[in-house]
Amino acid sequence: MKLYVDGVQAASGTPAASILATADNPVDIGCRQAAGGEYNYPFLGVTDDVRIYNRALTPMEQRALYEAVVPPNVSLTVTRSGGDWVISWPAAVSGFTLEAAPVLPAATWTNVPGVVNNSMTITPMGGSLFYRLRR
Q1: How many CB atoms lie within 10 A of CB 99?
Q2: Which range of residues forms the domain containing residue 122?
Q3: What is the Cα–Cα distance from 12 to 3, expressed in whole angstroms?
Q4: In a shared domain, residues 59 and 97
């Protein structure tokens, strides 16, 4: 078993045989059950992308999954233009969509319309929006 954080292998190991011995064991993500009792060991943090496969992914497959969400070496630039904000990213970065969500962590992200040449001008309307690039 391998654990990746932000596209980099962070840990690896062999699960205990008792975990794999039966299909009756649940998979718990975000909380842990105490000795068959209540789920009372919550994870304190943010989990944004969890996947379970029935086979080991190659390092190339794992990296491709990471880069589909997080473009390598891409910085979003945010500048002020009068009362508006301009979000932009390098012209060499193609094939990505600017998405927005009102809260983090976000269950759903919405495509931001009106992006031209990797740039978007936003007029503040009150409240908060969070932005990301997604392939």
Answers
A1: 16
A2: 77-134
A3: 6
A4: no
